[in-house]
Specification:
It is built from two helices and no strands. It is mainly alpha-helical and 80 residues long. The protein has one domain. The radius of gyration is 18 Å and the shape is rod-shaped.
Length: 80
């Protein structure tokens, strides 16, 4: 694999990790809101935050799958 292709693929992996980290940060912030709702209950907001938490968790899972798949391609390309 030439250096240009290597750098491009390595950059893509870094961007994917960044997106995953951003989603995990969102999950953390949503958890803080959910915790705050114990002191000041609001059922509509709680329901919305639980749905947002689920979607963010699903996104992390999908991004992890994408990272794993791309890492396999990257490793195969390095060996070629």
């Amino acid at each position: 694999m030439d250096q240009s292709k290597y750098d491009q693929m390595q950059g893509m992996l870094a961007k994917l990790e960044d997106v995953k980290n951003s989603q995990e940060s969102i999950i953390d912030k949503i958890n803080h809101i959910i915790t705050d709702l114990f002191q000041n209950p609001d059922s509509e907001l709680e329901k919305a935050m639980e749905a947002a938490h689920q979607k963010a968790s699903d996104n992390v899972e999908k991004i992890n799958e994408a990272i794993e798949t791309y890492e396999i391609k990257f490793n195969k390309a390095q060996q070629a």
